[in-house]
C-alpha cells in the first residue's frame, strides 16, 4: 500500500512537471511567433512564407511561391516571350560575371535579356547578339549612378511593350 501511494505520488509529480513544461514552451513559442501571427491576421490573402534561404529547394520553393503570389489569376498565360529581363552590370564586372550568365540561363531567354552597363564592350556586344546597352552612366556604385541606370532600364522596358 505504501509503495503504491509512493508510486502514484511520483506519477502525479511527473505529470505536473510535464504539464508545466508544455505550458512554458507554449508561452515561449507564442511570444516568439506573436508578431508573425498578428501580421498574418492582418494580411488576409497573403500566403505565409518561410524565411528566405539561399540553400537548395527552400529557395526554389520560395521563388515559386513568390511567383504564384504575384502572378495574375492565370499564370499559364505568361510565357518567356512576354518577359523583359534586365541585368544591371558595370564594365569592371563584365569578365567576371557575364560569362556564367551567358553560358547558363541566358541561353533560354536570349531575345528577352538585356544588359545595362556603363561602357562600350565590343566583345560582349558580340556574345550577347547586341544586347549590351551602354547607359552612359557613371560606373561608380552610388545611388545616383544606379538610379541613372535604372532609368535607362525602365525606358527600355516601356519601349519593349513586354509585360
Ligand atoms: C550613350 O551615348 C552614345 C554616344 O553619345 C549614344 O549614341 C547612346 O544613345 C547613349 N546611350 C543612351 C542609353 O542614352
Automatic annotation (TrEMBL):
InterPro entries: Fringe-like_glycosylTrfase. Signal peptide: none annotated. Pfam families: Fringe. Residues 77-163 form the Fringe-like glycosyltransferase domain. Gene3D superfamilies: 3.90.550.50. Coiled coil: none annotated. Its main location: membrane. The keyword Transmembrane applies. It comes from the Eukaryota. It is found in: Endomembrane system; Membrane. Keywords: Glycosyltransferase, Membrane, Signal-anchor, Transferase, Transmembrane, Transmembrane helix. It is a single-pass membrane protein; Single-pass type II membrane protein. Belongs to the glycosyltransferase 31 family. PANTHER family: FRINGE-RELATED (PTHR10811). This is Fringe-like. It comes from Nesidiocoris tenuis.
Amino acid at each position: 500500500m505504501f509503495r503504491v501511494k509512493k508510486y502514484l505520488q511520483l506519477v502525479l509529480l511527473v505529470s505536473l512537471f510535464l504539464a508545466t513544461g508544455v505550458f512554458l514552451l507554449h508561452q515561449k513559442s507564442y511570444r516568439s511567433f506573436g508578431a508573425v501571427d498578428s501580421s498574418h491576421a492582418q494580411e488576409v490573402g497573403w500566403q505565409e512564407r518561410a524565411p528566405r534561404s539561399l540553400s537548395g529547394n527552400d529557395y526554389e520553393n520560395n521563388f515559386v511561391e513568390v511567383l504564384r503570389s504575384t502572378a495574375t489569376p492565370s499564370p499559364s498565360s505568361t510565357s518567356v516571350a512576354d518577359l523583359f529581363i534586365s541585368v544591371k552590370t558595370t564594365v569592371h564586372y563584365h569578365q567576371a560575371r557575364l560569362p556564367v550568365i551567358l553560358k547558363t540561363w541566358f541561353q533560354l531567354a536570349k531575345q528577352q535579356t538585356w544588359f545595362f552597363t556603363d561602357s562600350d564592350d565590343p566583345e560582349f556586344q558580340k556574345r550577347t547578339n547586341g544586347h549590351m546597352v551602354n547607359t552612359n552612366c557613371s560606373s561608380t556604385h552610388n545611388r545616383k549612378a544606379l538610379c541613372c541606370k535604372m532609368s535607362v532600364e525602365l525606358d527600355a522596358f516601356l519601349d519593349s511593350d513586354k509585360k
